[in-house]
Amino acid sequence: MLKALAIKALPPTIIVFVVLSGSFLATPLASSKLPACGYGYVGYGGTSAPTVTNVTPNSGSTAGGTKVTITGSGFCTATAVDFGSTAASSFVIISDTEMQAVTPAEAAGTVDVTVTNAFGTSATSPADHFTFVVTQSTAKCITTQPKLTGSNGSTWVDMSAGLSATFTAGATGYAILGGNADLWTANTGFNQDMGIAVTGAGFPTSAGQPEAWKESGGFAGTFSPNAAFVQTVIPVTGGQAYTARLVWKANKADSGSIYAGAGPIGGRFSETCVNFRLVTSLPSVVAKSSTTQYQLINSNGSAWQDMATTNLGLTFTPSAAGVILVSGNSDLWTSTKGFNQDIGISAAGNLEGVGWIRRHLLAQRRLRAGLVRGGQRHHVHRQAPVEGQQGRH
Fold it and tell me: Which of 25, 28, 98, 228 has the most CB within a 10 Å radius?
């Protein structure tokens, strides 16, 4: 009797399994649905076309592959997600009001993100915009140890043939250029200057001069590498070729030698690099620079003060919530030994995660990223106290 009952109970179990499996198999291979949508049963998702109220993030590479979160309604019965006229690479339905999609490859520009179900396609609006941007970046690095002997203190020369990066801008925008090296001198009394020289449409700005430069210390010491970093932002035109080169010289005429690269460790010296990154969303790039020499006298070592409120202060309003990179760099030094210099970035507005770093001698480093809220005004400026009671910037 027990054997017969067990056999009779078997078919319903098999039937339920087939129904559940069928609901998953009926979902398009490019998408999937979670239990919040009832495994695809009729009755979930309403009886009207979807709506799209937000797309986050709202920009990404023209190469595709950006995962975005779409919010709105009517998603449980969605059959397609499109970026403009191009279908998403894939999409996952989280609930009737949320889904995720992976962007396809697309030409640069702004498109509407639409969702389609059995009752129609979502109406377009600025809330569903997604911008495809051209992203380019490259870096050229060496692990050898360049040497410059007999610098006249005024002529910039290429640091190494391996520290030249050539690129053709995929779109009009800005190129963020950077260079780094461990610099040191063989003779006391000499510092090392490092810069980024640019050739291409509209460059160099001044013949024979880099677009930005920094001076590395060690004036009173020898064979003591100092980590130097130089960064600048330049406008570029789509389709035009540019070359960024790392150049250097001594800070004054030097019959001796200056070097780049610490070590070696395992047969390799520390990396010396030049790099660039193309940013095509023009309103998203804001930069301020100054060639003035600022000083801070009688710092109490704890109170931060603006280095230059006007020349080194930025005000911006992001069009959407997201993450921004905030950076600053400066050649810092003291007139009295025994004191280091602290440099930081402070912010007013809903900006989170801004930081500061301590500067030993003239080392250059980038600062941190911060979170911003769309539509809100933010002000960022550079500040610097000094450890102890004396010193200047």
Answer: 228
Query: Which ranges in the chain are annotated with CATH 2.60.120.1340?
Result: 134-281
Tokens of 262: 């610490």
Phi, psi (rounded to 5 degrees) for 235: -80, 140
Q: What is the pLDDT of residues 62-99, one digit of tens each?
A: 889 999 999 999 999 999 999 999 999 999 999 999 99
- Please give the CATH superfamily to which domain 23-133 belongs: Immunoglobulins (2.60.40.10)
The answer to whether residues 184 and 218 touch, using CB atoms and an 8 Å cutoff, is yes
Contact 139, 274 (CB under 8 A): yes
Q: How much is the pTM?
A: 0.59
> What is the architecture, at CATH level 2, of domain 291-393?
Sandwich (2.60)
Predicted confidence (pLDDT) at residue 220 exceeds the cutoff of 70: no
Asked whether 366 and 308 are in contact (CB, 8 A), the reply is no
Residue range 311-336, pLDDT digits in tens: 888 777 766 555 566 777 787 878 88
Return residue ranges of the chain for CATH 2.60.40.10: 23-133
